[in-house]
Structure formats: C-alpha cells, structure tokens
C-alpha cells in the first residue's frame, strides 16, 4: 500500500467513524445537513477511489465536476445550519423567516469573497475548470470566516469548545486554512515532487480534521447556555425593528385603485 492510498483509506475510515458518532449522539436532530455532508463525503471518496481504479480520465472528469457542485451546495447548507444552530437559545423570539435571512447573509458573504478567491485560481485552467475551482476556493474562504467569527464571538454567543457548532466550525476552518495555503503555494511552484508533497500534506490535514471530530463527537455535548445580556439585547433590537417594519407596512392605507388606460 502506498502512502497516498493509505491516507485515503484512513480518511474514509475517519469519515465513517465520525458519521457513526453523529448518529450515536443524535447529531442528525440538530445538524442534519452536516450529517448529510459527512455521509456524502464518505460516499464520494469511495466512489472516487473506484473511478480512479478504472483509470478513465473522461469518467473521472465528469465525476469531479459533479462532485464539486454537489459539495458546494452541501457546504452552503452546512454554513447556514451552523449559523442558525448558534441562535438556538433565542430562535423563538426571532421574526418569522429569519432563517432565510441567515442564508441570504451567507450568500452575500460568498459574493463578497468571490473577488478575493480570484487570486487563488491558476491561470492555465479551462473556463469551466476555472469557475469550479473558483467556487471551491470561495467556500474555503467562507469556512475560514465562519470559524473566525464564531471563535471570536464565542463569549457573546455563549458557546465553547464542547459545543457542536464550534467543534464543526473548528474542523472546517482548520482544513480550509490548510487548503488555501496549499493552493497559494501551488501557484508559485512548478509540477514535481514537492508539488505532490503539498497535496499529501493537505490529505494529512484532512485526516487531522477527522481525528479532531472523532475525539470531539466521542464526548457528550454540554448543555447549551443562554446568550449573554449584550447579545440578547442586540437580537431583541433586531426583532423589534423587524416587527415595527411589518406593523408600519400593515398600517399603511390601501393603495387607491387606478383606472385602466384603454
């Protein structure tokens, strides 16, 4: 067994263990999209290994494009789910439809990160490959931003390292930082042995993420704390502003009927 196949096999085992622990800890009840994402990662890695074994470049190319698109959709769902789960203690007091607002904000953040991700795209790619690579790196930056926000605001959000939301964000953030570093280094070096060493280092970092999640999810999640008074006040102001806006719209007089122009 080569080093590459060994790391790939270890990663698949890690994903299977993480998914099993999530089911055991009933993670699907609070983070269903993340559970689906781990299951999808496990299935896609096994499928990719089979496709590579057939040595079909055309088949692997089609599989790779499909995998990136589905992976990006699931990542978007996971990031929105993490943000919504963080708000769990006060979700009942938030305006109806606020979950949609959360996903819209993440989409806007992704649009803001899109120009920044341009710096990581290699110039020699075809147009389709460039777009898919660009999309992949945009979500890498989004995952890092998500981790940094949650870690820096952990006291206001009343979350710690034993909360599932921060554990998930930490694992995603660690691997995303490693992925961005490897991408930047790749853009300044030619193909060769050292180029492949960086890919191997990235695979090792992914294995490190799986290991961290295994140890994290093997322990029982602590009971979620209430938000800090500052955060509760901020959310109340946001909710009050939204309700006031709806009431103001409801109090407006009906628009007078206009005559149709014949």
Helix content: over 70%
Strand fraction equals under 5%
Poorly predicted regions: 241-262
Indicate the mean pLDDT.
82
Describe it:
With 262 residues, the protein is mainly alpha-helical. It has one domain. Helices cover 74% and strands 0% of the residues. The protein has nine helices and no strands. The longest helix is centred in the first third of the chain and has 30 residues, at 57-86. Mean pLDDT is 82; it is low at 241-262.
Task: Describe this structure in a few short sentences.
By secondary structure, this protein is mostly helical. It is 74% helix and 0% strand.
Topology diagram in text:
Elements: H1 3-24, H2 32-53, H3 57-86, H4 98-117, H5 127-152, H6 154-157, H7 164-186, H8 193-217, H9 229-251
